[in-house]
């Protein structure tokens, strides 16, 4: 009798687990609103070439912009179904909290405070960065330790500002911060000689210098990196279905690169005999239904937005940045997407 009860108990657990795995995801206010609206509202920076920028024709591009395009491709089968909203370091998190944007995909660092106290949640890491310093070559410094007493341009309300103060305090150096909220005004102040150094993530510094053309040769990035800056998309906490979709839309380009699937060969790979590739591209597994979208969701992302290497080459490589830690784990980097199975 005891053996029979144990068997029934195990069967019930197994059945319950299977039923739970097949159950539809709970309703999500953001997911449902985006679906009804017909497009994603994406908050991002307008002035970070290679990562998030808008040109004179109103066209947006960049590695962070591709995050939102991927989500739209997954949900609607159309990567163009995105409305972009320009954000600043001061208003970006409040706008997300207030529901004015569906995703924040910008130069935003994943930190404990932002996730534990603001009602927000990071879905992953798009770009691993670190804070650095840009200086004029004529300043005659070659390391951050030589910036004692320097005036440093920095944006307020950012992890950059906190890291800067911590670094100078820890190093026993004197600091005069020049705090300006608007990025363009901050850069103008730096170019005008109002500060000795400009600090932000090294990628943003490289993008800024690249945008200066020949004038960029007058400036140098110091070799010091003073912080960890994992940058990724942010959504409101407690909206699980939307969180799942944004998170896995971010993993797809990395998985596609692992599989060698590109925007050019994605259609040909639909008939690939590899069972893992077939599951990934929606030929089996039914993963789209688990996320509330079509089973070809990953295929649409790769076909329309490309894998991570394609996105990097299109957006970031022209800045002269090496992938470094942003390579796949199979190539000595830290990008390690979980399996889609």
Automatic annotation (TrEMBL):
SUPFAM superfamilies: Periplasmic binding protein-like II (SSF53850). Residues 1-21 form the signal peptide. It comes from the Bacteria. InterPro entries: Bact_solute-bind_prot3, Solute-binding_3/MltF_N. One of its GO terms (biological process) is amino acid transport. Residues 39-269 form the Solute-binding protein family 3/N-terminal domain. Keywords: Signal, Transport. It holds the Pfam family SBP_bac_3. Belongs to the bacterial solute-binding protein 3 family. This is Amino acid ABC transporter substrate-binding protein. It comes from Neoroseomonas lacus. The lineage of its organism: Bacteria, Pseudomonadati, Pseudomonadota, Alphaproteobacteria, Acetobacterales.
């Amino acid at each position: 009798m005891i053996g029979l009860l144990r068997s029934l108990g195990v069967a019930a657990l197994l059945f319950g687990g299977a039923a739970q795995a097949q159950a539809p995801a709970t309703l999500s206010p953001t997911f449902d609103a985006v679906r009804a609206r017909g497009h994603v509202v994406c908050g991002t920076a307008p002035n970070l070439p290679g990562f998030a920028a808008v040109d004179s024709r109103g066209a947006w591009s960049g590695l962070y912009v591709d995050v939102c395009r991927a989500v739209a491709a997954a949900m609607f089968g159309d990567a163009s179904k995105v409305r972009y909203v320009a954000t600043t370091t001061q208003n970006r998190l409040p706008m997300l909290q207030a529901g004015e944007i569906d995703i924040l995909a910008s130069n935003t660092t994943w930190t404990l405070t932002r996730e534990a106290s603001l009602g927000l949640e990071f879905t992953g890491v798009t770009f691993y960065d670190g804070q650095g310093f840009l200086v004029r070559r004529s300043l005659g410094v070659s390391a951050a330790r030589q910036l004692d007493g320097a005036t440093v341009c920095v944006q307020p309300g950012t992890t950059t500002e906190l890291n800067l103060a911590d670094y100078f305090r820890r190093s026993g150096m004197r600091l005069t911060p020049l705090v300006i909220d608007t990025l363009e005004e901050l850069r103008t102040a730096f170019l005008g000689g109002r500060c000795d150094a400009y600090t932000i993530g090294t990628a943003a510094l490289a993008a800024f210098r690249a945008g200066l053309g020949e004038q960029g040769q007058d400036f140098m990035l110091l070799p010091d990196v003073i912080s960890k800056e994992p940058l990724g998309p942010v959504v409101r906490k407690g909206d699980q279905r939307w969180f799942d979709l944004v998170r896995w839309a971010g993993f797809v380009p990395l998985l596609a690169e692992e599989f060698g699937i590109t925007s050019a060969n994605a259609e040909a790979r639909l008939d690939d005999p590899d069972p893992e590739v077939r599951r990934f591209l929606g030929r089996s597994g039914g993963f789209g239904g688990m996320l509330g979208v079509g089973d070809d969701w990953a295929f649409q992302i790769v076909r329309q937005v490309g894998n991570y290497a394609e996105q990097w080459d299109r957006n970031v490589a022209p800045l002269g940045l090496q992938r470094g830690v942003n390579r796949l784990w199979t190539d000595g980097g830290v990008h390690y997407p979980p399996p889609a199975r």
